[in-house]
Design a protein that fits this description.
Layout lengths: L4 H23 L8 H20 L3 H28 L1
């Protein structure tokens, strides 16, 4: 397991940076909360953090990130349906 520590640390940092990037860009109105960019950044980052927290057995954080991903998936589906209906 120790051999994979660096890999999982990189995954965890990537997830953290992705979430902060999504939040920051949205806060400064560079992206909208109903955009694919925002939602996919949240989804990808949440998945990275799930992997990271499972590796380190920090299950409270795992739970938080699972909920984060569960929120992102239906939002992406709704956005896709909305864009399909307006096309």
């Amino acid at each position: 397991m120790e051999d994979y520590k660096l890999l999982f640390d990189i995954i965890g940092w990537g997830g953290s940076i992705g979430l902060l990037l999504a939040y920051g860009l949205n806060s400064y109105q560079k992206i909208k909360s109903d955009s694919y960019t925002f939602l996919l950044l949240n989804l990808f980052s949440g998945i990275c953090l799930i992997v990271y927290t499972i590796f380190y057995k920090t299950y409270a954080n795992t739970f938080l990130n699972i909920v984060w991903v569960i929120i992102a998936i239906p939002a992406i589906v709704r956005l896709a349906q909305k864009k399909k209906n307006t096309a």
